[in-house]
Amino acid sequence: IGCNANVDLDRILTMYTKNNGGPVTYVSIQYPDPHFKKAHQKRRVVTPELVQTLAKFVQSGCDVFIQSDIKEVFDDMREKLREHGKTYFFDVVP
């Protein structure tokens, strides 16, 4: 499913699950933030709210793949997942 995750994800996943869409078993967030400067951090895609939305719908053991070409953005995404999704997501770095 592709969408503006901060606006539509909860609504789309609610409809998906209510219509027997099956479990969410994999989440991929790749290169989410074209505005990576500190002044634009409030516009980041991976927010505590997004992590909580994902946590509502993912299956236990769900893989969350995050990728960025900017280390600070990657570290911020990983920290948000660790801090706000620690009950649902486990950090595995190969």
Summarize the structure.
By secondary structure, the chain is of the alpha+beta class.
Architecture overview:
The protein has 94 residues and is an alpha+beta fold. Helices cover 40% and strands 18% of the residues. Strands 1-2 form a two-stranded parallel sheet. α2 links the parallel β1 and β2. The radius of gyration is 13 Å and the shape is globular. It starts with a helix and ends in a 10-residue tail after the last helix.
Give the secondary structure arrangement, pairings included.
Blueprint lengths: L4 H14 L5 E7 L17 H10 E10 L3 H14 L10
Parallel strand pairs: 1-2
Helix pairs in contact: 1-2
For the biggest sheet, the summary is: 2 strands, parallel
Helix and strand composition category: alpha+beta
User: Helical stretch count?
Assistant: 3
Spatially, the strands of the biggest sheet line up as 1-2
How much of the polypeptide forms β-strand, as a percent range? 15-25%
User: What overall form do the CA principal axes indicate?
Assistant: globular
How far the N terminus sits from the C terminus, by CA atoms, comes to 26 Å
pLDDT < 50 stretches? none
DSSP, total strands: 2
What is the CA-atom radius of gyration, in angstroms?
A: 13 Å
What's the helix-strand series? HEHEH
Question: Can you give the mean pLDDT?
Answer: 85
Indicate the percent of residues in helices.
40-55%
